[in-house]
């Protein structure tokens, strides 16, 4: 019952997006905040984001955020190895765990598809902006492997805005037997971005700031099928080092070690039961000097289950996640939903979900705020958000049809325990199917005679907004 959009590999290759998060800019209900062409990209989904910290970001189902600040280094996610991007709107922590408040972004990496799978892309533009993408791989009967590399350079259009980034990826798999397949993914990114002067800075200020990010990830997964259930077992490790210029003085390292078991089984006709467990150890070190290196760590355990049953034109589902963090305590995240398809071209979707987010280590230990009720102690409770879509209606045609969604969200934080409700309405219209060109996924010249628009009218902390977005179904 979730609102899901998928950006395919073909759409990504036709786009001008440089990173995976840039490619989301034209999806309805998604708002992108960028610090520059090669800078940080923060994402809000349906009004929730908080500089990207309230949106879960996954790569092949593996969490991608750094453990100290619980944020994603978005320019470390170029498109050189991406097969598709899946976007889920609204809280869905029952399936995806912490940070799935505004929604979920799952980046699926590419596998080699041919015995000789080669590609290359080179571009050059103004301000000495240049890039190179290379990939080489092979697929044999039981083995596949692909190596990809991305290089991006720019002198920047402002003083002190240059960029230099390098990304290397490897994905390989081996089918051990018809019932067992192993898959390995490795990644390493290093990049230096200089920070130009802001418009609010004094005219006499000379910008000299820069930051360097090194991020890496490893994961090994096994997909299996037995008589009782099918599923995946995944082991992963994320690691990184962040160094800012001496004027800022920040230098840190962090890592996340985790394991996930995800099982699914069909109990009866039209039924799908999913269960799983995930464990994580998150840690980081602030390198103040050679003699001062404070470190912090935390452990998390999640148990989750969801059952879905199809009964003719009606599909109902319910799920629950129990999450335990040794710092912030325990959280229950339920979900329930229903999809009604009275006709092949019409789908009605109803759902109620809860999302939560554990406060990151910078909030609980490094720079802890004070709770007004307990001035001497930081508040370490989890953030939560409840989303109650009153009605989500989609009319599906062979091309583009109208779709709409009405939903309400109620965010709650430890700092401001009182809830503030937000009501939103999204309306999607396309007057005729002839104005859409399926071969290019863009509107034809006949679009001038069409009335295609999106309207978002809402109340969010007493602020309303009107947004025009591009005609992509799936709100």
From TrEMBL:
Start and end residues of each TonB-dependent receptor plug domain: 2-104
GO MF annotations in UniProt: siderophore uptake transmembrane transporter activity
Domain TonB-dependent receptor-like beta-barrel: 132-365
Keywords, sorted A to Z: Cell outer membrane, Membrane, Receptor, Signal, TonB box, Transmembrane, Transmembrane beta strand, Transport
Listed Pfam families: Plug, TonB_dep_Rec_b-barrel
Its membrane topology: Multi-pass membrane protein
PROSITE patterns reported for this sequence: TONB_DEPENDENT_REC_3
GO CC field: cell outer membrane
SUPFAM superfamilies the UniProt entry points to: Porins
Annotated family: Belongs to the TonB-dependent receptor family.
UniProt cross-references to PANTHER family, sorted A to Z: HEMOGLOBIN AND HEMOGLOBIN-HAPTOGLOBIN-BINDING PROTEIN 1-RELATED, TONB-DEPENDENT OUTER MEMBRANE RECEPTOR
The protein's name in its UniProt record: TonB-dependent receptor
Species per Swiss-Prot/TrEMBL record: Agrobacterium albertimagni
